Amino acid sequence: MSKASAHSATNKRGSTVTRIEAALTQAISAGELPPGERIDEVKLTERFGVSRTPVREALSRLVAQGILIPGEKRGVRVAEYTREKLAQIFEAMHEIEAACARVASQRLTLLARVEIEGAQADCMAAAQTGDRAAYLNANEAFHQAIYRATGNPYMAEIASEFRSRTGAARAKKFASPDDLLASANSHADLISLIFSEDSNAASDGMRAHMAQSFRATLAAN
Asked: Between 1.10.10.10, 1.20.120.530, 1.10.510.10, 3.90.580.10, what CATH number should domain 83-220 receive?
């Protein structure tokens, strides 16, 4: 095999691994794979039409991120946490999410404003129809839009990692259409604070939002 062919094959495998990793992360954040759920390698190879090699590489990446944890007989499962560990993770999330809201408020651009408003519109639409899966995806997009609004990819990466680690646990708090509406409505106040350009108010607002999220998540788990 020529160097060019080898390079192309490596890039293709890397792209496949990334695609599988992203799909699993989204499924976990959307509550499709609950805490403790065992990941079936065979089903993943069939779903993506690939060999076990890229599947195992994607799973290894997710284990390294703490999204998946080693299970019995060399398998892996979706991470599940004790109340104490969940509290510790959320404590860290409070700080980074509050920092993102503060910086986003200081650096808000027209594009960032439009992206946040668009994500919120999707949240409201999903909540009003009671579409849980759509809401969970829209809710993740809403927070991602805030992260991007910071203009700091390092802050966005750290915040995203925390959300990925807690996705399965947070998804369980959305048990009814009323839960979806309450969450979507709480975004409206948060957006007002971020758009006000009062960075301290935006930070405090995000802290309150995350505290409410933690209480609901703890009650659901």
From this structure: 1.20.120.530
Give the three-state DSSP class for 109: coil
Tell me the per-residue pLDDT of 151-182, one tens digit each, with 9 for 90 and over.
999 999 999 988 988 988 999 999 999 999 99
DSSP line for 63-82: HHHTSEEE-GGG-EEE----
Closest among 170, 172, 173, 144 to 158, alpha carbons compared: 144
**CA-based R_g, the chain, Å:** 19
Q: Which residue has tokens 């499962």?
A: 77
Nearest 10 degrees: CA dihedral of 146, 120, 179, 186?
70
Structure tokens at 215: 């209480």
